[in-house]
Structure formats: C-alpha cells, structure tokens
Write a structure and sequence with these properties.
Distance between the termini: 83 Å
CATH superfamily of the largest domain: VKOR domain
Strand content: 5-15%
Strand order of the largest sheet: 7-9-8-10-11
CATH topology of the largest domain: de novo design (two linked rop proteins)
Largest sheet: 5 strands, mixed
Structural class: alpha+beta
C-alpha cells in the first residue's frame, strides 16, 4: 500500500485532536501555559467568524479530510480521495497563513496549538500533491464532482462540530457550569493578556465590597421599615416624621471649637466674618444628620430591630493566627477583629467605643487588634510598628490609648516620649524597631487585610461577619445569645 494514505490519515488524526482541544478551550476556557499566547488568541476576535470559533470549523474540516484519507486506503477510491484532499487543503492553507500573520504582527502572541494546525495543513497539502505528482494525476486539478451521497456525508462532517458547539454554548450560557479540581472552581471568567482569571479569584477579590454594599442596603431598608412603622403609628408620612427631628443648637463656642480644630485646613487670608456662617451651616448639616441617626437608632431599639446575617455569609478568618494584641477570653461568645489605623480619627472613636462595649459585655466579648495603616496617613506606619514593639513589653494597650489620643503628633520624637510615658524600655523598643520585628507584624496584618479585601479603616469582622460600623450593645448582646 502507498505511504501517502496512511500518512494523510495520521496527520488528520493529529489535526482532529488539536482542533478538538481548541474547540473545548473556546467553550469552557482552557490554557496552554502562562508562557504561551493561547489565552490572547482565544480571547481575540480574529479567532471567530460569524460567531463560530475557527477551531470548530477546523475540526469539521479535519473530520471531512480524515474521511477522505480513510477512503484513500481503498485502491479504487484512492486517486479521487487524495485529489480532493489536495484541493481542500490548498484552499485551507490561505486562512491558516492569514492567522499566522495575525498572531505575529497584529495580536502579538503565538499559540502553539494554532501553529500546529497551520503546520498540519501545509503538510497535508504537500503529501497529497506529491502523491498526485507521483501517480501523474496532477494534470486534472479538480476533476469530476463527488456523488450526491458522498457530498452529503462531507457536508455533515464539516457542519456537525459547529452545530454541536452552538448547542452546547447555548446550554452553558443558560446554566453556567464550573470545572472542579479538588473542590476549587476553575471556571475562567476573564482574561487579561495571557493571564486567566477564575470566577473564584474574581469573587474573592470583590467579596468584601459586595458584602459591604449588601449590608449597607439591608440596614437602609430596615431603617425605612422602622420609620414607616413609627410614621403609621403617629398617622404621618415618613417625611413629616423626619421633619420633627431637630438638630442641636449651634452656638458661637461650637464654631470657635471647630475653627480651632480645623484651622490648618481653612483657606488663608479669609476673615472669620466670612468663615463663621459657612462653619455654622456645616455644623447644622452634621448635627441634623447625627440627630437623625440617633433618632433611628432609638426607634430600632424600641422596636427590637436587629440584623443577624446568616452563617453562610461569614468570612473564613482566623481571629488571631499570629498572636496579635487582644483583650477578652479566647472562648468569648463574640469576637471582634478590628483593622485599625492609628492616625485615623474614626478609628480613635471606634477604639473608645470598643472599650465601652467591653465594659458592658465583659467576658462575652473578645477584641483583636490588627494594624492597617493607610497610605494616606504616612505617619501611621511608624506608629503601628512602635505599638507592635510595645506589645513585646506587654504595654500595647496603654501605648495605643496614648497614640489615639495624640493622633496629630506622631513624629519620631513624640512616639519615643509617649513610649516613655507608658513605661516602655526605650532601649528594647529601639532594638525591636532596628531588627524590623514591628515591621514584620504590621506587614502580616496588612497582608491578611489585603487578602480579605479591606480597603478602609476601621473595618470589623464580628464572628466572621464584616461590618463597617460597630453595632449597639443590644445587637451585640443579641449575638451573645445566638452564639452561646
């Protein structure tokens, strides 16, 4: 038997395997390794025509030509079959050459599977043409058309992969599936160049923001329910009810205190006579907002309104894996992990609030402190390292209390003075800083915060549930009852 039919059949089988892999990669998301350009190619618009991947059309082509190569094993059908193989591959060489050009000069990424398919196409053409030349059948370029039954079988082989692809794509888009490996979702949700991003990676990155937005909307909705209940009880609308909330009176002393606290941020060369009315309006707006918040909180307390997120929404967070500073028993019913910035004014208020909650709940509450100095507060980093070193001398909490009280003065000399005031051994403090042990503690906390998606301070994880603000004593007492 001539070598050509066997060689053609083997090449076709390799082509079928190659295009089959590329087809499933289009359908389910696949990769040929970070160093290849497969991801860029698969994501390119150049690899589809009329919505169909070229790989799917190539699979149909290789199935068709494989059928012809199989017929070529029979002597009576050999010349006709190889003649059509040479014609079809001659036509097929043009699109694969264009695709190779696009890879090198437009997309700028080389896909080894695509290059393999191009090489196979050229080899098929060469082998079939050489056979025709050897058998002296090259003079008749195309010859007579195939019989109807052969033409139908050829059309079916060519179209079947595309029809199957369209059907599967429609099913998968209606009911997305994920490929599982060891219980981890591997569904490719996006591509950035050659990097493939799984849906698990994407969801993990946005989980905290989604939780924060969902919690905020839940709280707003509950506030509205409380206001509507109170409004109905008083036979007024919610707007009329809120108009009854009066802001506190703003005195000149309030204005003077605000100016003194924020003098550095005031526009220069502007007289107080022009600033005072603006300050008064700002204080009125802030006071009205605070009064509304306090009013709604009292209504929620009156109606026993408490939000208890389900356990399924907890974050997988180890409360204290590295022995961070903490107060309260390890087996407390409620554990609050607080990511805090020592230069953040809201963190200072939250720190005082945590003290109050701990006094109220006692052994039912455990508080774990995590450092998360923000880049917008450059002085907070050194303060965090100093407090981490103070923890080595069992003086973390006194040191943090002083730092939160003196947030406007966190320079190196001030930090040393604060340390001395709480009883720190300055020699040991300096040795800790020089050896970067405090730096390592802060970096570890920052890394875990980044892993969880923390982006602002303060941020709290209460028994694994993310909360932007600390709940009331009543809500925490409710959690104590839930988790006991």
């Amino acid at each position: 038997m001539p070598v050509a039919p066997i060689a053609l059949l083997l090449l076709e089988l390799v082509g079928i395997a190659d295009t089959l892999w590329l087809t499933q990669a289009h359908l389910l998301g696949g990769s040929c390794g970070d160093e290849s350009g497969c991801s860029a190619m698969l994501a390119s618009d150049y690899t589809r025509i009329f919505g169909l991947p070229l790989a799917t059309l190539g699979l149909g082509f290789y199935l068709l030509v494989a059928g012809l190569a199989w017929r070529a094993l029979v002597a009576e059908m050999r010349q006709e079959s190889i003649r059509w193989i040479s014609v079809l591959t001659g036509v097929g060489v043009f699109p694969v050459v264009v695709l190779v050009y696009l890879q090198g000069f437009v997309i700028g990424a080389w896909c080894p599977y695509c290059l393999l398919s191009a090489g196979l196409m050229i080899l098929l053409l060469v082998v079939s043409v050489l056979h025709r030349r050897q058998s002296q059948t090259l003079q008749t370029l195309i010859g007579r058309l195939p019989e109807l039954r052969v033409a139908i079988a050829a059309a079916a082989a060519l179209a079947t992969p595309s029809l199957l692809f369209l059907g599967l794509e429609q099913v998968l888009s209606a009911q997305p599936i994920a490929l599982h490996s060891g219980g981890t979702s591997q569904h490719i949700a996006a591509r950035v160049g050659t990097r493939q991003i799984t849906i698990e990676e994407l969801d993990k990155a946005i989980q905290l923001r989604v939780t924060e937005a969902r919690s905020s909307m839940r709280e707003e909705w509950l506030d509205l329910q409380v206001l509507e209940t109170e409004a109905a009880k008083s036979d007024v609308t919610v707007d009329q009810l809120m108009q009854q909330v009066k802001p506190p009176e703003i005195t000149q002393q309030h204005i003077d205190d605000f100016f003194e606290a924020n003098g550095a941020r005031m526009p220069p060369n502007v007289p107080r006579s022009r600033l005072d009315p603006q300050i008064r309006e700002q204080l009125l707006r802030d006071g009205h907002r605070d009064a509304e918040v306090i009013y709604i909180q009292r209504l929620r307390q009156r109606y026993g309104t408490q939000l208890s997120p389900p356990a399924t929404e907890r974050f997988a967070i180890d409360a204290n894996p590295l022995g961070a500073p903490e107060r309260g028993p390890a087996d407390a019913a409620v554990t609050i992990v607080a990511f805090s910035d020592l230069a953040c004014s809201y963190c200072a208020k939250a720190h005082l609030r945590l003290d109050e909650l701990q006094q109220e709940l006692g052994a039912d509450l455990r508080v774990v402190f995590r450092h998360f100095p923000l880049k917008m507060h450059p002085e907070a980093r050194l303060a965090a390292e100093v407090s981490a070193c103070a923890d080595e001398q069992n003086l973390f909490w006194p040191m943090v209390d002083v730092l939160f009280e003196n947030q406007r003065q966190l320079g190196t000399e001030q930090l040393q003075a604060y340390g001395e005031s709480v009883g720190l051994n300055l020699t040991q403090l300096d040795e800790c800083l020089q050896s970067h042990r405090g730096d390592a503690v802060v970096n570890a906390d920052l890394a875990e915060g980044d892993e969880l998606g923390v982006s602002s301070t303060p941020s709290f994880f209460i028994n694994g549930h993310f909360m932007k603000d600390l709940p009331s004593v009543e809500n925490l007492q409710h959690l104590v009852q839930v988790y006991q």
